[in-house]
């Protein structure tokens, strides 16, 4: 068996059938709903899920809902998992899920919530045209948007390099979407 496989949807499930049950799926699985599911497919970007109580709905737990700390292990086919609904992707009729097994680093996130508004020393991981990504702990990385940089009209890659230590202020955290907004602190880099 290949490490990665697409889900076997029984050969009969097509887009029209998925669209037909989509309204019921949205009613039954709103954002924030705890779910139990079986892994029915694995790809480098995440795992596909079949929900125990809603077998017509297809779930997807993407690695983007996992901290970027290099400790991700995708669950195997057939494994029962639990999690919470975080989004609905109407274009492909999928329910996005954050798996509980991938939240073992949630404590690291919770510690950072206590630091909101404070200055933290971080390490630049990726300067991009739209902002600078900075790691503030083992499993938490945030973005300083280009608009918040001292010279917002210049390419954010200018003036920052990978591995550079910078002092940042923790502005905002979204625990559901795993997003962190940072700003350069008054102390700068």
Key features?
2 domains, 40% strand, OB fold (Dihydrolipoamide Acetyltransferase, E2P), five-stranded mixed beta barrel, mainly beta, 2 helices, 189 residues, 10 strands
What features would you describe in this structure?
It is built from 2 helices and 10 strands. The protein has a 5-stranded mixed β-barrel with strand order 1-2-3-5-4. Strands 8-7-6-9-10 form a 5-stranded antiparallel β-sheet, covered by helices on one side. It has 189 residues and is mainly beta. The protein folds into 2 domains: 89 residues, OB fold (Dihydrolipoamide Acetyltransferase, E2P) (Beta Barrel), CATH 2.40.50; 79 residues, Nucleic acid-binding proteins (OB fold (Dihydrolipoamide Acetyltransferase, E2P)).
Write the layout of secondary structure elements.
Blueprint: H1 15-28, E1 34-43, E2 46-51, E3 58-62, E4 80-89, E5 94-99, H2 106-113, E6 119-128, E7 131-137, E8 140-145, E9 165-174, E10 179-184
Parallel strand pairs: 3-5
Antiparallel strand pairs: 1-2, 1-4, 2-3, 4-5, 6-7, 6-9, 7-8, 9-10
